[in-house]
Amino acid sequence: MMLSQILSSQARERIARIALVKPEKARGVEDVILRAAQMGQIVEKVSEERLITLLEQINSQTAKQTKVTIHRRCGVDDD
């Protein structure tokens, strides 16, 4: 209910499309938007462009770091 007042129609559609693929990510974005609105940081409707920047910020914060470690086995003839 509160999200419909905060988000523009294009932003709501984008979150709905994200929720089809990654429901946990959509829920996280909704939580961030709701917290910001409750703290008074959002004074106007969130446009699709602003939603995209929020998504990019969240993706950069939650990006997984991949680490590759190579363990070489010692052969019989190796010193």
Automatic annotation (TrEMBL):
Pfam families: dsDNA_bind. It comes from the Eukaryota. The gene is LOC104753705. InterPro entries: PDCD5-like, PDCD5-like_sf. Belongs to the PDCD5 family. SUPFAM superfamilies: Double-stranded DNA-binding domain. It comes from Camelina sativa. This is DNA-binding protein DDB_G0278111-like. Gene3D superfamilies: PDCD5-like.
